[in-house]
Amino acid sequence: MISANMVMELREKTGVGMMDCKKALTETGGDFEKALDYLRKKGLATAAKKSGRKASEGLICSYIHMDKIGVMLELNCETDFVAKTDEYKILAKDISMHIAAANPEYVEPSEIPAAVIEREKEIYKDQVKGKPANVVDKIVEGKLEKFYSEKCLVKQAFVKNPDQTIHDLVVEKIAKLGENIVIGRFVRYQLGEKQGES
Questions:
Q1: Which pLDDT tens digit goes with each residue over 53-67?
Q2: Contact of 183 with 75, CB cutoff 8 Å
Q3: For residue 141, what are the domain limits?
Q4: Of 169 and 196, which is predicted with more confidence?
Q5: With 60 as the cut, is the pLDDT of residue 100 above it?
Q6: Strand 157-158, strand 161-165: pairing
Q7: Would the pTM of this model clear 0.85, i.e. be above it?
Q8: How many domains does the chain have?
Q9: Quick one: 95 and 37 in the same domain?
Q10: Do 8 and 36 have their domain in common?
Q11: Is 44 within 8 Å of 164 (Cβ atoms)?
């Protein structure tokens, strides 16, 4: 038996509509944790559909850490309404704080110049000389993924929750807020550091 209290509790925890909460609890036999997972999976599927939509609204967020590191971030969404919500502003602040701490160089791998990727591949190939070609390719691919996770914002483990990447964090908020969210661009300044250094 699914009680109204259970439905209300799930709704308060997830922000999802009452009918969806009731369906999640029914589908999972009243198991609260499984219902949460069910909604997250459903939400992420919904978020994936939204990721193709145009995101031309949003905000510019600035964050200064101890007067030594400064970050400006452009975070885009679909409507001004969502951009003004506290949840969205907190997301922008969290990502800005992450940038200050983790010092990414790019938003995503597609922004890395081809010459930089080729140089990395050559270094990795030199490190595993003498191994069979198929093994070399796998090792190089693995090292390249690690390189992306160090240099690209969306691939980095979120400093406030290392079990989640920045990409996962954004997708979670897309599901919750119901709009596409895109990290537009960022700039990070560190006192005494010239642009282009890291």
A1: 677 789 999 999 999
A2: yes
A3: 113-150
A4: 169
A5: yes
A6: antiparallel
A7: no
A8: 3
A9: no
A10: yes
A11: no
3 state SS of 116: helix
Name the E strands within 7-156: 57-65, 69-77
Structure tokens given for 137: 């390719």
Three-state DSSP at 106 gives strand
**What b-and-e string marks burial along 80-94, b requiring 16 or more CB atoms within 10 Å of the CB?**
eebbeeeebeebbbb
Structure tokens at 189: 């300044």
Residue 58 CB coordination number (10 Å): 23
Question: Following DSSP, what letter does each residue of 137-178 receive, concatenated?
Answer: HHHHHHHHHHHHHHHBGGGSEETTEEEEEHHHHHHHHHHHHS
Residue type present at position 23:
K
Asked if residue 197 is part of any domain, the answer here is no
119: number of Cβ within 10 Å:
11
Name 15's bridge partners: none
